[in-house]
C-alpha cells in the first residue's frame, strides 16, 4: 500500500528543476590555477614505483601463508581447523590489499592513456602499455574508445559507454506511469537483482571490450576492441590495435606458461583473484561516476563538452584506502572529466576551485559505495524517448529530477 500511495502522489511538476550550466570550457579553465595543469614525470614515476614495491611486498608476504598455516606449529597452536580458517583469512587479506594495489597500477595506466602521467608521449605509451597489458586491458584500443567517451560524455547519440536505455529499448508503454504494471516489467526479486549486479561487477569490462555491452547502441553487431577494422577505429589506428592485441596474446602465453610451471591454482591465488578485484573496482568506480538519478544526459544541441563533464559525481570510495591505493581516482573524478590531462595528484586542490566556480553543478556523494551501487543499480533504469535534457527513471517510472520548463517535453507519462 505504501508503494502504491507513493506512486499516486508522484508528480513531475514537484521534482527539482534542472537548468544546464551556461559557462564555456574556457571560462571554467580560467578559474583553475595554471600550476594544477603541470605534469611532473618524476612525481608520476614515484607513485608507480610505490605501487610496484607494495605489490611485490604483498606478493612476498603471501608466499609465507601456506607454509606457515599448514605447518605443525600453527596446527598445534590453532588446532587444524583453526589453522585452516587462519590460512584462508590470510589469503583474503592478501586478495583485498593486492586487488587495491593493482587497481592503483591500472589507474597509472589510465593516466598514461590521457597523457596526464608525463609530458613525453613515449613515456606515457610505454608505461601505459605495460601496466594495462599486465592487467588485461588492451591499452591502445581502450585508450581510443575512452578518449571518445570523454569527448562525448553524457551524449545519448555519441557517448561510448554507460549509455542509458530508453523507454523504447525496454518496450515500456508510452502512457501515464500509474497505468503501467511496473512490477510486470521490473519485478525481479532482490536475489536476482543481486546476482545481476555481481555479474556486472565481474564481467562488465570484458563484456564491453568483447561485445560492446553497455556501449553505443548504434554500433553494428559484434563491435569489439580487438578487431583492427572495427568501427571504433580509423585506418590510421589499425597498427595500434594490433599492438594491443599482441600484448594481450603475450599475457595469455605468460599465464598459461606460469600455470604449467606453478599450477593453475597458484596462479589464480596470487594473480587471478587480485585481477578479478581490479576489474570489480574500476567497473564499480566508473559505473558510480556516471550513473546516478541526479545526473543529466543530453540529446542534440543541448549537449556540449562541459555539460557532459559536469554530468559525473565524485564518490567517497573506501575512505583513506580509496584515496591512497586508488590515487584519488574515485574521490576527484569530476575535475578529470573537465581536464583529462590534469595529473591525479592535483585533483583535490583543483576540485575546490572547480566547485567554487560551477557551484550546484558540481556533484559529490559520501554515501557508502556499496549502498550507492545498489541504489543506482535499482534507480537508474531508463530515460525517456523524447527530450534533450534527460534524467534516469526508476522501476516505478519515477525520476529524481526534471528539466527546467524551457527544456521540458511534455509526454503522456507526465
From TrEMBL:
Pfam families attached to this UniProt entry: FA_desaturase
Top-rank taxon, per record: Eukaryota
One GO biological process term: lipid metabolic process
GO molecular function, one term: oxidoreductase activity
Domain Fatty acid desaturase: 89-363
Matching PANTHER family: OMEGA-6 FATTY ACID DESATURASE, CHLOROPLASTIC
Record protein name field: Fatty acid desaturase domain-containing protein
Originating organism: Agrocybe pediades
Amino acid at each position: 500500500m505504501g508503494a502504491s500511495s507513493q506512486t499516486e502522489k508522484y508528480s513531475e511538476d514537484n521534482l527539482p528543476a534542472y537548468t544546464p550550466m551556461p559557462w564555456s570550457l574556457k571560462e571554467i579553465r580560467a578559474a583553475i590555477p595554471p600550476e594544477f595543469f603541470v605534469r611532473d614525470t618524476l612525481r608520476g614515476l614515484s607513485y608507480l614505483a610505490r605501487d610496484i614495491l607494495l605489490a611485490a611486498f604483498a606478493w612476498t608476504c603471501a608466499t609465507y601463508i601456506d607454509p606457515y598455516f599448514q605447518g605443525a606449529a600453527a596446527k598445534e597452536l590453532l588446532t587444524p581447523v583453526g589453522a585452516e580458517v587462519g590460512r584462508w583469512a590470510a589469503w583474503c587479506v592478501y586478495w583485498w590489499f593486492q586487488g587495491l594495489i593493482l587497481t592503483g597500477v591500472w589507474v597509472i595506466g589510465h593516466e598514461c592513456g590521457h597523457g596526464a602521467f608525463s609530458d613525453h608521449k613515449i613515456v606515457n605509451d610505454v608505461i601505459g602499455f605495460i601496466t594495462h597489458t599486465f592487467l588485461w586491458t588492451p591499452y591502445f584500443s581502450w585508450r581510443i574508445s575512452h578518449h571518445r567517451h570523454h569527448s562525448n560524455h553524457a551524449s545519448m547519440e555519441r557517448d561510448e559507454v554507460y549509455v542509458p536505455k530508453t523507454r523504447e529499448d525496454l518496450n515500456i508503454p508510452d502512457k501515464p506511469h500509474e497505468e503501467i504494471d511496473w512490477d510486470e516489467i521490473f519485478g525481479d526479486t532482490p536475489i536476482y537483482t543481486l546476482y545481476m549486479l555481481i555479474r556486472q561487477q565481474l564481467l562488465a569490462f570484458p563484456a564491453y571490450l568483447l561485445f560492446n555491452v553497455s556501449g553505443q547502441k548504434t554500433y553494428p553487431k559484434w563491435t569489439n576492441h580487438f578487431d583492427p577494422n572495427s568501427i571504433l577505429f580509423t585506418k590510421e589506428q589499425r597498427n595500434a590495435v594490433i599492438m594491443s592485441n599482441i600484448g594481450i596474446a603475450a599475457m595469455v602465453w605468460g599465464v598459461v606458461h606460469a600455470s604449467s610451471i606453478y599450477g593453475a591454482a597458484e596462479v589464480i591465488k596470487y594473480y587471478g583473484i587480485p585481477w578479478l578485484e581490479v576489474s570489480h573496482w574500476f567497473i564499480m568506480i566508473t559505473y558510480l561516476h556516471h550513473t546516478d538519478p541526479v545526473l543529466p544526459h543530453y540529446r542534440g544541441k543541448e549537449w556540449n563538452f562541459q555539460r557532459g563533464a559536469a554530468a559525473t559525481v565524485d564518490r567517497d570510495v573506501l575512505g583513506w584506502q580509496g584515496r591512497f591505493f586508488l590515487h584519488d581516482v574515485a574521490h576527484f573524478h569530476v575535475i578529470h572529466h573537465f581536464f583529462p590531462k590534469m595529473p591525479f595528484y592535483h585533483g583535490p586542490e583543483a576540485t575546490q576551485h572547480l566547485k567554487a566556480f560551477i557551484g550546484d553543478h558540481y556533484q559529490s556523494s559520501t554515501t557508502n559505495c556499496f549502498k550507492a551501487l545498489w541504489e543506482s543499480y535499482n534507480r537508474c533504469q531508463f530515460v525517456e524517448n523524447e527530450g534533450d535534457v534527460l534524467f534516469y527513471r526508476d522501476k516505478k517510472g519515477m525520476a529524481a529530477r526534471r528539466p527546467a520548463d524551457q527544456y521540458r517535453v511534455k509526454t503522456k507519462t507526465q
